[in-house]
Design a protein that fits this description.
About 45% of the residues lie in helices and about 0% in strands. It is elongated, with a radius of gyration of 21 Å. The relative contact order is 0.08. It has about 300 residues and is mainly α. The N and C termini lie far apart (about 55 Å).
Length: about 300
């Protein structure tokens, strides 16, 4: 229960210790009884679970670079811990620079599963910053369909096949679009807006639209095998009645992302396909670069939930 001022003082003290006594950054703890679940491991593991600063993270990495690649008793790297604990904290101003420092310091961490079978992308349902989800998928698009040793569903199935909070909100969003509800930034005072998500995304988006954007990223990665290397802000956060725009993005190889085609091809819940068709009805009769309609794509993956066909 430290105040912000006390936290800053502690982080400054930590940085001084790193410079004066770098050997302390190499101490590996196996007991978490005093400092909580994520304190097992090197000091970098502990710091990534708390309110940290970019300079304090860099100081610990400089004192012990190997900590970036190390796993604690739960087989979690510092990246796993920060994505689960720190990156979802929209009030942490350094969250994206810290996240990228950990990510690019050890990119292979995106492919490593912890002892629960989770890779960092599994926490995408907690992440309210789209940049985090995007960067993870750029480096590891296969993560969208990854299944860990004790995980029954892939991240894509978890988000798009339910039962989950996502499915209910996708139904709500489809209803908003059908009824002509304004989902643009100008409507941010509406009762269904999630101000924390809006702040985290850096733009005016409602919580339903934000989750639909995350779902589309997963669909894009699963169907096309890649996502664009950077978010194109003027396109991605276009102010429209149906919210965040991903449809029409050109991917590697010249393929164009179409949400109706991607959702039809991946065998996701009917509510997801209905939402895609509601937002982009013209795509129902469009063919992709291989001349396929959405009906062609879904023909091989029909399951009992696909009553929309």
């Amino acid at each position: 229960g430290c105040s912000e001022g006390e936290e800053r003082e502690l982080l400054i003290l930590l940085e001084e210790i790193c410079w004066k006594h770098p050997e302390q950054a190499h101490e590996f703890r196996t007991d978490h009884s005093l400092f909580g679940e994520y304190s097992r491991g090197f000091p970098l593991h502990s710091l990534c679970s708390a309110a940290c600063s970019l300079s304090s993270v860099r100081a610990l990495i400089a004192a012990n670079p190997g900590a970036l690649k190390s796993t604690n008793k739960e087989e979690m790297t510092p990246l796993h811990i920060f994505v689960e604990c720190g990156a979802k904290n929209s009030s942490q101003p350094d969250r994206i620079p810290i996240f990228r420092t950990l990510l690019f310091g050890y990119p292979d961490a995106v492919k490593l599963a912890d002892d629960d079978g989770w890779i960092p992308l599994h926490t995408v349902t907690y992440i309210k910053d789209l940049q985090v989800a995007w960067d993870l998928l750029v480096l590891h698009p296969e993560g969208a369909t990854f299944r860990g040793k004790s995980i029954r569903s892939s991240v894509l199935q978890w988000v798009c096949s339910g039962p989950s909070e996502y499915i209910h909100e996708f139904q709500t969003l489809a209803g908003h679009i059908t009824n002509g509800k304004d989902l643009s930034p100008e409507a941010r005072t509406d009762e269904f807006w999630d101000l924390e998500s809006t702040k985290a995304a850096g733009v005016g988006v409602c919580r339903d639209v934000l989750k639909w954007a995350v779902a589309q990223l997963l669909l894009m990665a699963a169907h096309h095998g890649s996502v664009p290397k950077q978010i194109p802000p003027s396109k991605f956060f276009e102010s429209t009645r149906d919210g965040i725009v991903l449809d029409g993005m050109v991917l590697e190889g010249g393929e164009v992302y179409r949400s109706v085609h991607a959702s039809a091809a991946m065998g996701v819940s009917s509510q997801v396909v209905v939402l895609a068709m509601t937002a982009r009805p013209s795509q129902i009769t469009e063919t992709d670069e291989k001349g396929r309609l959405p009906l062609h794509l879904t023909a091989g993956v029909i399951h009992p939930d696909m009553f929309w066909c």
